[in-house]
């Protein structure tokens, strides 16, 4: 079977080939540091060999739990934020029919809704209203078990589920994915007797999609987690190659770092398939939280093409030349649709008649690549043979491994996120959270000025 492929050719008129080749020993050293666990953040390396360590028993347990939810719920709310949200959403959106939510319900195929990733009062009001006459269940996902957004949504959902479905059924259709011992989500799950899954200590949120954090909701959505894991396993093998030229994760890490050294401070991840929108959101957290430290790091952004060619296209073509693009390109769509011919040809589109829609999309992709490279934007391409679970698993591991290597090339700790706490401290102080008395006083003084 084929693998995903990285093509960096269209970056080579912007960076020196020799300089890029000089990364080989550095990249090799970073990979050894990851393997030996001797680098910064080495207590968070559980993702490195996660795919190959997943057992059939574990997958069976996840699938059995998913089945309980599928059989007993018309709607399943997946509550989580950041790493406890984006991976599941990325895979579910990529693998689901875009209009599933508008289609007539099939028994045993619950609608998946996400919550706990914002504090929008209207969002939560509308969600709880929608759920009023629904047989719903909840997957409560939080590594720390204390994240405000998720805890707040879960408090509302737990109460409503118990009131609507009774305590006994609620116990059956509420599942927790959290730490083995710590945090409010663990305490609640143990006290209520919920089925629960553990997020390993040594796997950080943004690297956790192949733990129950991602695998359980993905299985509930009816998506093949065996294939997802199989694809990740394959990439674990491919990306272990010490030869940079043969290792896509190593080559990607080296290329983006060399671009960064040449003033390309912003990476734009691009798709030409709207189903990949949330995959890009997942990628942004992975790279943003991993690399944005010590006042360094490429700023990860994303666009959906061709949609955003009609909005952001101008900036990319002619704005400040501090950007490069990485295109995730799906080679063959899962469905075929041909452009019909039209006798009157009022829209002038008969030159496309008989062509597959994807041929038009591919020419948009090629035309965009040429135009952007001409405009001074280096362009990499990650080719994906087809959008399925297996290749999504490959993509996930490829980007994770590259992120670890890239972070070490940048000489930062890619596995922590201390900066995320700053806003939380202020928010808790402003909300008078117990334990924040001093900070509350100080922040109020500051606001008076
Ligand atoms: O899983 P949780 O502990 O609820 O954390 C959810 C997310 O929020 C935090 O603030 C971090 O920035 C993320 O890295 C994390 O994935």
Automatic annotation (TrEMBL):
<keyword id="KW-0324">Glycolysis</keyword>
<dbReference type="GO" id="GO:0048029">
    <property type="term" value="F:monosaccharide binding"/>
</dbReference>
<keyword id="KW-0312">Gluconeogenesis</keyword>
<dbReference type="InterPro" id="IPR001672">
    <property type="entry name" value="G6P_Isomerase"/>
</dbReference>
<dbReference type="GO" id="GO:0006096">
    <property type="term" value="P:glycolytic process"/>
</dbReference>
<dbReference type="Pfam" id="PF00342">
    <property type="entry name" value="PGI"/>
</dbReference>
<comment type="function">
    <text>Catalyzes the reversible isomerization of glucose-6-phosphate to fructose-6-phosphate.</text>
</comment>
<dbReference type="InterPro" id="IPR046348">
    <property type="entry name" value="SIS_dom_sf"/>
</dbReference>
<comment type="pathway">
    <text>Carbohydrate biosynthesis; gluconeogenesis.</text>
</comment>
<dbReference type="InterPro" id="IPR035476">
    <property type="entry name" value="SIS_PGI_1"/>
</dbReference>
<protein>
    <recommendedName>
        <fullName>Glucose-6-phosphate isomerase</fullName>
        <ecNumber>5.3.1.9</ecNumber>
    </recommendedName>
</protein>
<dbReference type="GO" id="GO:0004347">
    <property type="term" value="F:glucose-6-phosphate isomerase activity"/>
</dbReference>
<feature type="active site" description="Proton donor">
    <location>
        <position position="289"/>
    </location>
</feature>
<keyword id="KW-0963">Cytoplasm</keyword>
<keyword id="KW-0413">Isomerase</keyword>
<comment type="pathway">
    <text>Carbohydrate degradation; glycolysis; D-glyceraldehyde 3-phosphate and glycerone phosphate from D-glucose: step 2/4.</text>
</comment>
<dbReference type="GO" id="GO:0006094">
    <property type="term" value="P:gluconeogenesis"/>
</dbReference>
<feature type="active site">
    <location>
        <position position="424"/>
    </location>
</feature>
<dbReference type="GO" id="GO:0005829">
    <property type="term" value="C:cytosol"/>
</dbReference>
<comment type="similarity">
    <text>Belongs to the GPI family.</text>
</comment>
<dbReference type="GO" id="GO:0051156">
    <property type="term" value="P:glucose 6-phosphate metabolic process"/>
</dbReference>
<dbReference type="InterPro" id="IPR018189">
    <property type="entry name" value="Phosphoglucose_isomerase_CS"/>
</dbReference>
<dbReference type="GO" id="GO:0097367">
    <property type="term" value="F:carbohydrate derivative binding"/>
</dbReference>
<dbReference type="InterPro" id="IPR035482">
    <property type="entry name" value="SIS_PGI_2"/>
</dbReference>
